[in-house]
Batch of 4 targets.
Target 1
Amino acid sequence: MSKSKMMKRILGALIVVVIAVVAVCARGRQQQEKTQEFSPLQKLGYTERLIESFYVDTVDSPKMVEAAIIAMLKTLDPHSVYTDAEETKELTTPLAGNFSGIGIQFNMNNDSLYVIQTTAGGPSEAVGIQPGDRILSANDTIISGAGRSNSEILNILRGPKGTEVLVKVLRRGVTEPITFRIIRDDIPLYSVDAAYMESPTTGYIRVSRFAEDTGNEVAEAVKKLKKEGMKDLIIDLEDNGGGYLNPAFDMASLFLQPGDLVVYTDGARVPRQDYKVKGKPLMPEGRLVVMVNQNSASASEIFAGAIQDNDRGLIVGRRTFGKGLVQRPFPFPDGSMVRLTVSRYHTPTGRSIQKPYVKGEGDDYHMDLYNRYMSGEFMSADSIHFADSLKVETLKNHRVVYGGGGIMPDLFVPIDTTMYSDYYRDLMANGIFNRYAVEYVDQHRDEIKRNYQTESDFVKNFSFTPEMVDALVALGEKNGVKLNEKGLERSRDIICAVTKGLIARDVWDMNGYFRSVNPVSRGTYEKALELVNDKELYDRLITGSGKV
């Protein structure tokens, strides 16, 4: 074969190879284009159809889809969650402001349901249900003696507005059970647990949640206390896990000036939104101290951050939780819901309330409080270190505050564990304090009412005697809590204060409980009182001219 023919054959072969390679590449590109056209949503739906069509066993499709939704949300942030219909109902009811029921506060004691209080103006009060009554049954469903949980009892007593429930009651001093016909109605859920005057000029308001009507409740409490002579105020947000944004804005607006920024939100797909005070404040002047701790979160942090950044008041306690992600609810027709994070909360100075997190690593995030405790943060402010890059100044007095997650108080108060013991914990965990208070009030209600004209009179003059301590210890022994002499001596003051507070609550209201417990069990409360009553110290901190 000549050299020229050989070259022609080689060239022809190369052309064939090139054509083949080009064809393969073209098919690859076409396949890639087809793959790109297969969206994540199509892939998810296709996988679900594959399982339904070909999986070896039958599958529960709704459960499988729920698991897929939960798994997707876990790759995002710690607060984007899915809840089924029942969980959604339990989640939203406490913040909705009311539910339909018969209007009682109750306690379970020895498998018996005792009425502690009736809601003022509620359906139970209207028909004559009294504190101390023991509810035996509702609509022929046995309650007392049936070993029912609190959630079961709530499901029995609650129901649609306007529906009827026949309640059979055993009353002390009455031989036969009494039957009451109660028409269920809307029952308010209150956010203000207590509002009272601690001194002739200092008021105290305890807020437990931020629900729909919290702003109005706090406004009414402020008006009431101002009529009683209040000039300065302590707002207690310890252990307040938050709630809705708007009530936090409404509450801050009671103390800030028109035009002051309370909070702003922004996100990658949600434009910035500023929340500025519009109306006149209800309490624009007077010393204001806000109590917080590591469990104060979300709306509590919005309020505390607004007060601190605008130099309207001082924050006392420990660094707050650091929950600054905004969830928007997306409900499904079956009652379930996705709460998806859409933006972040920022204080007026621009601090992000949200503490750091790594996407998809929720376990580490939820261990944060434990890690903070183990690092010594709850004991000493010196264990908390902030980078200079997180430093900002308040808007009016130019005090230094720090971002990076949560609200750092102006006056740090370490957690107090000196009076707590394992014995106290065991009594509390077994419900001994509640049981003792229910039994004591059941036996002595009329006597207490005769001897103490008001709840304030009771708190000031009632003494928890050694005989009462012995009876409480005996009740504990009877219910499996063995006496620990050292634990009793260590925790005696808090044991007496808590039980006295529960008695006051059961006879009057929650004011009596907090009046009894606050001075004994809460170091933050003592510091708040010290600060609000010491004008020189307060002014030094609020102006940034000195530290404690």
Note: DSSP finds 19 helices and 21 strands in the chain.
Target 2
Amino acid sequence: MPTKSLISELPDIVRDGNREAAAILDRLSSPNRITLQTNELVLPAKATSAIRFKDNQINPTTPTTPITPVNQINPTLPQNPNRLIYGDNLLAMQALLGGDPATGLPSLRGKVDLIYIDPPFDSKADYRTKLTLPGDDISQKPTTIEQFAYADTWKDGTASYLRMLYPRLVLMRELLSDHGSIYVHIDWHVGHYVKVLMDEIFGKENFVNEIVWCYSGPQRSFQNFSRKHDLIFLYKKTDSATFNVQRIAHKSGLHGKGGLGFRNGEENNDRLRELEEQGKVLEDWWVDISTVGRIVKEITGYATQKPEALLERIIKASSNEGDLVCDFFGGSGTTAAVAERLGRRWITTDIGKPATLVMRKRLIDQEVKPFLYQAIGDYQKEMMHGTRLFRSIGDLSQVVMQLYGALPFTPDQVADRNYGYIKDERTLVYVDSPNKLTGRATLRRASEATQSLLGGGWRKCIVLAWNFSYDISQAIEEYKNTVEVLVIPPDLMDKLKKQGFTKLVQSGTVRFSGLQYLKLKDIQKKTYGAEDTLTIELDDYVQLSPESLPLDDKDREALRRLMDEDPLALIEYWSIDPDYDGVTFRSLWQDYRENVAVDRDPLHCLYRTELTVPHKESRAVCVKAVDVFGFESVVVERI
């Protein structure tokens, strides 16, 4: 049977994309709509020396305002705070469109003034992340959630890419204000197919420009003309869209032979000065902006990073100070960084953990205003999309369950196929979805199941999971008497494809390991009048088993050596909330690799600090550490 042409598939892509977007918009008023969990309120105070927070100055950015919980009106943040969101942008946009009455964050439908996106556009791209560690560089594969996303995006080539993009563009249109514009950065792989979609979604009459960004570089082709330009499609929401004329310096030829034909020298000189001051009105081909590789001070190590000058031009052209700018494929965070510098508000999202780590560090280095670091709530993506690797999540769950050594319940016993049990041990086993972040809500349900499932009386429930939400460490501590959490190896899908279920069981190579955790030395407190000085020091970091990480064999061995010799070197950053309220973590102090302001060591954090805070008889100190793979550990101590 001949393969369908892409042109013939476009009507189906448009129809299905509109249906999916319509279903999403219909769900916005549902009580079960997707919301965002606030991981932390980031207050960009990086380690430089001991920090003193005086009474009524806990928040160094607003010295007269004490911090209040984020679910109240928080005077430390604007009504619509800047946000860094980890997770699938389709889900993030749903949350932004729906708003969240519980936190007082309103719907952003029709409130976004500018959107720039730079979606991935090469199916053969290498999505690995290089990690530089003491003694070795290792290469991290994408997380399971990312692997599923990339597999869905490229499984049918360009057609599935367009299916991924279409409903997202529809939601972006819903977010745009009447003054809003959208820039979609793309290249020759899919460029003109994307333009067809945008004509359909935004209206061909609202197409403004096809911008050609030309650049040069060392890679040359001898089989064709070297491909050295990207396309940026600009569309407006309405005729009221903001547009500020941009100018660039005239070429030196302005002074050259022939001039501009002015009648006398004095008039010529005056007109030349006027033109030089104004500059030349910018056209739709840009040859004056270099790629990041030529701008050393901007390099973050993120593969698809775009130069700040490019985003500065776009943001200045299509927004004004105070406007809201969004980037839903955030990458290295260039859009957010430039928007902040230009006095715009911003929201940026990415499905990749490495990207969110890069962005967070970059924004702190820039000393931006406080922002929220959020994640998609406890969701089930497969409820919307399903998975094509197995007929159902239930099928996959039962395979994982049996690899662990548990038995599935029959449908007559338990309808939920994610549950099983260990014979003769009165132990439940629950296998979570690969498309889900396992967090407190999952552990609560597992704990309740020990008392309710088939009459209750279960000793405990073992939760096998792929991906974890920010609150997992605290949740494990909260439910430690009834729930145990183990990590499913992230390469299990690959092993199942290569070896099959039977051979994999016989090989005995599948290992389920416990989660990572952080150890602190005892926090020391000394009181001097109305102030307490806290000495906080990291003691040890226990990483996941290398078998549970998305690494090649040689990199696993390098990681084992580092875990034995220098485990704290695995910490990417750690931060402290010295007066944790149990609701919102506020990072009042933080240090991270590559912050050389104190120790000049780019591969290690500081592991000890002193903070001076207003005296309290009792306080909860919360310390959060995130390792180089993006896994998070939280320790709360009451002193």
Note: The radius of gyration is 27 Å.
Target 3
Amino acid sequence: MELEDYQFTKQELKYLALLSEKYPTIQSVCTEIINLKAILNLPKGTEHFMSDVHGEYEAFYHIINNCSGVIHEKVDMIFNNRLSVQERSELCTLIYYPEERLNIIHDTIGDLESWYKITLNQLIEICKLVASKYTRSKVRKALPKEFSYIIDELLHSVEGDNNQETYHGNIMDTIISIHNADEFIVALATLIKRLAVDRLHIVGDIFDRGPRADGIMDMLMEHHAVDIQWGNHDILWMGAAAGHPACVATVVKTSVSHKRLDTLEGGYGISLRPLTLFATQTYVNCKTTHEAMHRAIAIILFKAEAEVIKRHPEYEMQERLLLHKIDYQNQCITICGQTYTLSTVDFPTIDPENPYALTDEEQSVLNGLVNAFLESDRLHRHMKFLYGYGSIYKRFNQNLLFHACIPMTKDGEFASFEFEGRHVKGKELLDLADEITRKAYFSVKENQKQKYGDFVWYLWCGKTSPLFGKARMTTFERMFISDKSSWTEEKDPYYTFCESEETCNKILEEFHLTQGFSHIINGHVPVKVMKGESPIKANGKLIVIDGGFCKAYQKTTGIAGYTLIYNSRGMRIVSHTSFRSIKEAIEEHVDIESSSEFFETNGTRLLVVDTDIGENISSAIYDLSLLLTAYRKGLLIPGDE
């Protein structure tokens, strides 16, 4: 494309001179324009969205390996009439867990050479299918280096060409004869999974409840293309890693409460022994060590929270100061005008005259925990990844992703929050939350770290927090009051108004997303499928993808998680059944059963040109067209062809 009458500014020519260093000749510019325009007309890549994985390592690992059921779909598509159900299941398991399955196959298959030939050809067929929507260049970049040339040759063979079939047959024979087939199978399986999902979005809450959030973080760090929208549980760990005492105490309390200490102790090397010793020596009336630990860290937490609440009257959380309201004589407490019986008043570290003061022993335990979080190298590697690849919200391909809510008033307007005399709401509130969360971790000044850390804690449980979405958190009530009416946590009005298409369009407009195919995608609140609730709301404008990945929620939801899949043909929601174990998946081919429902089908197939990446490519094409014009007008001198 030439821009014959275009008038260049000095600044543009200066920029184009820099661009010419990468594309020094007219032909190099033309070639790149041709390549980029070809890419624009490819189908858009497949995006997967998941949320609220909550440390469920084994289930998440399997979902990543089976690409939310997509691998099984591809295998069925190709081999439905050629392989039995059992044979297709075995092939899928090989792709999911190639190394583990190969160990079993060596012991169970008699004629390995024949098996290798058949299996390698099957894997190549699947590779061709999942690679078909990408440029050859992009596929090459995804290839494992040690086999890149060989796989590239096999993927681009022409059926019916006898010479090529002989050539490729010789390649296969050689791979088998030199005992390199296992490594090649692993490489092909990895490539298939890599190409099946172009980008993964994790819409919050990687941490807490499940056993190994640290293992999930390791997987995400190895993923080829991932972004994360922080959830309230993630933000809590981020605040703890920054050394904020209330965040640290909350993380430990949550871990003890759910009896999930693997991530803390095994994953990050944070010892709870000082807490255990203090708890068993102090809370002597508790029946178990766990009960003593739980009560000890809870009281430390309530005291640490009180310091934050007192420092920030603008948080409007004074009603959460409960320790001074305990009636020890009558074993009860009055909250919001209602008196409740307490299950215990055995609080040996609370001084009724000064109930929010930490004892020397409590302060020592808390200081030790804070230091342990600050000194965990693995934890900080994971946190830096969360900061680097995460954010409070994300706009991607005309969709708005955030974990919980856009805080609203009972009138349906965006709720305002005051920070340092500045009132923010809507997009501005989320932008502020993102900015302050980063400052809390990276700031070096102690007074700033405390101020920003306090705000991170507020994001965990504050009533105008876009990550919490409730009026209050009833931690004390759930621990010490049997009357469940006291446990009620009123949801933000967002959860009422978001059911309407009008409100969703209002939110999308606030975030500068106005096109008809834009959606809001969030999690946080489990969808009660067993009660008839749908994840698709507001006439398809809102998709809530918390389907109960965490085992604790599966009795409520009736399923074991969702994956939202957005490809060139439209959007579909995939619901998963509960996962038994990786061991059974490897040995017995037990898969997660997934069922999908298309709820939005594109009239025409979406192409790369319709995506954010396409917008960037179109911009690059325009710049290259300017460079081409500058060369042809003699404003810049091209190199020799």
Note: The longest strand covers residues 594-601.
Target 4
Amino acid sequence: MGKTLAYKILEQHLVAGTLSPGEEITIKIDQTLTQDSTGTMVYLQLEAMEVNSVQTELSVAYIDHNTLQTGFENADDHEFIKSVAQRHGVLFSKPGNGICHQLHLENYGKPGKTLIGSDSHTPTGGGLGMIAIGAGGLDVAVAMAKGTYSLTAPKVVKVELKGALREWVSAKDVILYVLKQLTVKGGVGKIIEYTGEGVKNLSVTDRATITNMGAELGATTSIFPSDENTLAYLKSQGRADDYIPLSADADAVYDEELTVDLDLLTPLAAMPHSPDNVDSIEHIGEIKVDQVAIGSCTNSSYTDLMKVAAILKGKKVHPDVSLVISPGSSKIMAKMAENGALTDIINAGARVIENACGPCIGMGQSPKSGAVSLRTFNRNFKGRSGTLDANVYLVSPETAAISAVKGVLTSGMACGERLPEVAAVDFTPNDNFVVYPQGHDKNNTEVAMGPNIKPFPRNTSLPENLEAKVVLHAGDNITTDDIMPSDSRLLPYRSNIPHLSNYCFEKIDAEFSARCKEAGKCAIIGGENYGQGSSREHAALAPLYLGVKFVVAKSFARIHRSNLINSGILPLVLENPADYDAFALGDELVIENAPQQVRGETIEIKNVTKGTVCKTRANLSAQETDMILKGGKINAIKG
């Protein structure tokens, strides 16, 4: 029986465990990446583990989220990360260099390697044939310290691509179609592996767009083979020596299969407020557009932006539309400045902003009240743009550009214009934005710790009886943006959990933080897919600081579940989903003989208020059980 590409790479990196779906495995990690929104916590945790230097082949600290410096906080965070990077042998990418996933694709990603990053869109590297996994910050810190990462071996889903994309249809439309078919929870516990004749018709940056948004499926990661297109991309970046061919065996067996006929796809959009709420632009109709934002780690490649420039050349952005563009890297910006494409964009009336995440994470460029905003980003959760009543649609760069000109949501296939091909170019290597560790020595490198950087909260060992009061009864698909908002107002405080905790769940329930402080020991009840979205562990650390002891839900998103366990917060899945309605705000709950129950299969929660018992499961591995018993991953590591 043949092997999938994903399992070939996992097998080559297997350190412990049995490589079979559902089994706990430990793999060797070749590379890690962090970004500054999560990075300060990662490096505080790395310091707490008291290691001398990282154990990976390569680790890079990128600054791309908190680049809006309206006070000292962000600059202090950047200097802290830079100092710890120097101390431990980590490369430091300065603000302005670009977005971590685009930069890693350009400069460091290698076919067949493993990568984990403290950002949920780390699977972008799957476009190069990597096993690239988004994880919580503590998992990344441990990977740097030990060179390994533990996970449940995923199932592998085969997505067979047939044919080729038509003009005005792009890679963004491919992943939106897959999201429509599989939904935002359809990839949980799975790797999405792309195969078929259609693969050869997609460039590496096309593939990276698709694997990037595989995070919205809830998938562990997504991966494409490494082939001639991979070699062409690496050559363009001056890295041909990093190429190796990789593919699944012809007789590989998959757990599930989906076929996508690229010839039949049309321009699509994800409508408010979920990436899987997808329909054709033709069916949605010509809705009036107020703002268009092009960029993000999903769609800020050179090819994407050159298509945008070609569409805008000689035209004018509609008077009612604000168009903002953020290139993915300094190399892309420089190349577009050289060839005149940047001039075409500016002359059309677009605003060009820094090479950074920017509006994708609510860091500036929030739309006006009640606006319709078309974005080439990966998420359109309610309020993520920074405007709670905005309606955000996710579209391709081609759709975004033509719609900015027309002033209404427009399908390029219906506009009658030809879309020129983007010629391949070679990029000039430039590492002027990168700070390399010079003779790093932990004992002789001082850590720059600004006044806004506070210690991360630590849990205590599991008590005999785990008591808590229900402080929130939430619905389905609660996102990490819902739990711990991320925008220009709060991002400067990512290193200050005590301050951030005051805003925990504010979009869902403005009284949540105060209620937790009054209760002291807290429990949260959630629905399906609790904790979807970003990898930010602040969505676990803030509840930990506020006294949350366990979360009961119908199901959990992968990364958030891991972050809860890393923090010593017990994630419990209802055996009977109907029991969700048996809980109410203010109910007093207790798990008796908690350590003994955690070691077993079923965990009973007594509702003292109602006099009832609810059965749940934690489905913990041996390592996860140890972490819960000891109050989190750091405690387990340090014994």
Note: The first strand starts at residue 14 and ends at 17.
